[in-house]
Write a structure and sequence with these properties.
heterotrimer, A mainly alpha (254), B mainly alpha (228), C alpha/beta (257), A: 254 residues, mainly alpha, B: 228 residues, Arp2/3 complex 21 kDa subunit ARPC3, two-stranded antiparallel ribbon, 7 helices, 4% strand
Chain lengths: 254, 228, 257
């Protein structure tokens, strides 16, 4: 659970947002994004409200803007996709800077970028203010089925192991002069995936034996108290409330 | 491809959510037969492995890239129900935590990448296993074909969602050709990695591959007296 | 007084048909410290995994403080037998040292202040109390091994089983761990290749080779018995002479019966 990747996702700060119970934050993110996604086509002003709302959360959570911008790189694939839209979409054309573009494609691209980006930023803020194990605890409190909680617990535990082994094998390959730049080298990488799996399997088995030896019966004991008060829920509800009110207003004024 | 927020309209995202919820519910019930407390860590490891595989983006053609899905691999290793749950967990963590795939599109992503891949991939494995010689090594070619087909099948399911609730106005034919075309290529990569992984595990530890369980021999304990 | 551990006629074959144990007999009295020596592949790990019922189903019996290792006793057996595995990274997986040490006793049903006391007590025993809130993977290897020992001590076991406790430790960590283990009022069974460590810590040793116990006696006598040592592929490190070592490190023997 103390997986290495949280080092670069989680920002260790003492903020209002960090202190909120994880289940409140998860629920807030899901509701916020839902409200954003249901924003009607044709109104643009709601997006300004959403951006301001997320900006307020980022400020309250002391998550610096450069960090958020850097992490937004994850959306590159759908940004590329959005760039294609104005060229590839059917419908009436308009001229922008000398290019003939599809008007609907341009609009679709804008909406996709806006909604997708807001969803990405909401997740970035959640990850920056919540540790993986608290995410688990929150999902458990939100009644995610026990079996999924267990699989997720072990997944966090093993990601570190898998990435660590992956790295060690890469170093071993490269020390023998291998450089994975050529497509023909895919076979080598694929073959090491098999070896990687067995190494992780066997390590996993040892971890499991060690757990069984300490009386593990399939349920991880929960130590941390993550009960949430009405006040905390009310505070977490602010973000989705703003978003829901905005989208409702947008539909009403359409 | 991980569908971002806003790519499929809200009503169809809800439909995707309902399909995913029902599917995951069925898997939770089914997984009880595949999984005891002892194998939960194994499922977690498979999930971590799928997570790592999905990080491997490889170039397909003309600047587009695809990543592996891992559904067939998970199903072959831990059983179809548990396998689907593993991929579901991966997608949930990616959506909530890594901003990869939209939170509101999670239902659609689970349906196309966890449920369709395991149902199609494992279905083909079961079918081919019946045709191939009854020994553990037969699982390897079966997994190859299962993985090969599961990826375009997943892309097809995505196109289905797009046809019914796409928001971008691209021509359906174009999306179909692009998605399925790219994913036929991704499927080849998926098939190679799945078969090699399953192959090495079957060679070293056949007891750890769910899909070979039907071939298991009853245990025999030998006892040899030997003076100390 | 009941012995801490009685292994009788233990034989076991793995599902693939490979037989690892061929009738092991071993009795360890309460408070004794015994080393199990043997070459690679002798069956040492297989033996260890029988002590708390993770492996079973072959012939023979294992009893811990009089309680037979069977399915219905497995919970109590796993409390009584504390196994410290070779790689501390296999053993430590919780986000903080405190939670990791609490994992075992929490599985036994302890909660609240009682659990906190148990954790503190175990961490004090290994000198790691001030690291309770640190993530285990930020500690040095030697510190992680000590925390791994604490995770097991927190269950107040009848017998502490250590698998290669000195592997990968630098000399200082190695000595610190030895000091800790020598100070514990507990029965210890230690599986090791590290013959000087066995001599330092365990007055008595047994040699396990090809799935049977082939020698049992004082560690000092065994290490000085060149014929037995060579026959079972046990070699002292270059320059190490048990005769001169014991003249400077007499700490090992008093409890030997």
């Amino acid at each position: 659970m103390s997986a290495g990747h949280h080092h670069h996702l989680y920002l260790d700060r003492a903020s209002l947002i960090h202190r909120l119970p994880p289940q409140c934050k998860i629920a807030a993110v899901v509701l916020f994004v839902t409200a954003v996604v249901t924003t009607p086509r044709g109104s643009w002003w709601p997006y300004a409200v959403y951006v301001l709302a997320l900006g307020a959360v980022a400020a309250a959570g002391r998550v610096p803007a450069p960090t958020i911008l850097r992490r937004m790189i994850i959306e590159t694939p759908f940004v590329l996709f959005a760039v294609i839209l104005p060229f590839a979409s059917p419908g009436p054309k308009t001229d922008v800077l000398g290019l003939t573009l599809s008007a609907t494609g341009l609009e679709s691209a804008g909406i996709l970028l806006a909604k997708g980006t807001l969803g990405v930023v909401a997740s970035i803020l959640l990850a920056a203010t919540t540790q993986p194990r608290d995410l688990l605890l929150g999902l458990q409190r939100l009644h995610m089925p026990q079996l999924l909680v267990q699989i997720m617990t072990f997944m966090f535990r093993y990601i570190e192991v898998v990435l660590g082994e992956m790295n060690r094998m890469r170093v071993a390959r490269e020390s023998r002069g291998f450089d994975a730049r050529h497509v023909g080298h895919l076979k080598v990488v694929a073959q090491s995936a098999g070896a990687l799996f067995i190494r992780c399997y066997e390590r996993g088995e040892r971890v499991h034996l060690a757990m069984l030896s300490r009386g593990y019966t399939g349920r991880l004991p929960v130590f941390a108290d993550a009960r949430s008060s009405t006040g905390q829920w009310a505070m977490a509800a602010l973000l989705p409330l703003v978003a829901v009110a905005t989208t409702v207003a947008a539909w009403a004024t359409l | 491809m991980h569908v971002p927020d806003g790519f499929i309209d809200a009503p169809l995202s809800v439909v995707g959510g309902v399909i995913a919820t029902v599917g995951v519910g069925v898997c939770l019930r089914g997984a009880r037969r595949e999984l005891d407390e002892k194998t939960a860590p194994l499922a977690g490891l498979v999930a971590a492995f799928v997570f790592a595989l999905q990080m491997l983006n490889f170039p397909v053609a003309l600047g587009t890239s695809g990543h592996l899905l891992g559904g067939t691999l998970a199903a072959v290793l831990v059983g179809p129900y548990t396998g689907a749950l593993c991929v579901t967990v991966v997608l949930t963590v990616q959506a909530l935590f890594f901003a990869d795939g939209g939170t509101t599109a999670l239902g659609i992503n689970i349906t196309t990448m966890a449920i369709v891949t395991t149902v199609v991939g494992y279905g083909i494995v079961v079918l081919l296993r019946a045709l191939l010689p009854a020994r553990p090594a037969s699982v390897v070619p079966a997994a190859f074909v299962g993985a090969l087909i599961s990826v375009p099948a997943s892309a097809l399911a995505f196109v289905g969602f797009y046809a019914l609730g796409g928001t971008t106005g691209l021509s359906l034919g174009g999306v179909l050709v692009a998605m399925v075309g790219v994913h036929v290529l991704v499927g080849i990569g998926e098939a190679v990695i799945t078969a090699l992984t399953v192959g090495s595990v079957v060679t070293v530890r056949p007891d750890l591959v769910y899909a070979t369980r039907s071939y298991e021999q009853p245990l025999e304990i030998r006892h040899t007296e030997q003076a100390a | 007084m009941t012995a801490s551990l009685v292994v009788h006629g233990l034989a076991f074959a793995y599902p693939d048909g490979h037989q690892a144990l061929y009738g092991v007999d071993l009795t360890v009295a309460r408070g004794e410290r015994v080393a199990v020596l043997g070459p690679n592949g002798a069956g040492k790990t297989t033996l260890v995994l029988h002590l708390n019922g993770i492996l079973g189903g072959g012939r023979g019996t294992v009893a811990v403080a009089g309680l037979p290792v069977t399915k219905e006793h497995v919970r109590e057996i796993r409390r009584r037998v504390g196994i410290v595995f070779q790689d501390p990274d296999d053993q430590l997986f919780m986000p903080t040292v405190r939670e990791d040490v609490a994992f075992g006793p929490a599985n036994l049903g302890l909660r609240g202040p009682e659990l906190a006391d148990r954790v503190h007590e175990a961490l004090v025993q290994v000198g790691m109390a001030e690291y309770a809130d640190r993530p285990p993977h930020h500690l040095s290897y030697g510190q992680r091994r000590r925390v791994a020992v604490a995770t097991v001590l927190a269950m107040r076991p009848e017998i502490l089983v250590l698998d290669e406790p000195s592997s990968n430790l630098d000399p200082a960590s190695r000595r610190e761990l030895a000091d800790i283990l020598l100070g514990l009022p507990i029965t210890i069974l230690m599986v090791t290749h590290d013959l000087p460590y066995a001599l330092q810590l365990c007055p008595r040793s047994v040699i396990l080779d090809d799935g049977v116990i082939v020698a049992d006696g004082s560690t000092y006598d065994l290490l000085c018995d060149d014929a037995t040592m060579t026959a079972h592929r046990l070699e002292l490190p270059f320059g190490f002479d048990p005769r001169s070592a014991m003249s400077v490190a007499p700490a090992a023997s008093p409890s030997f019966p």
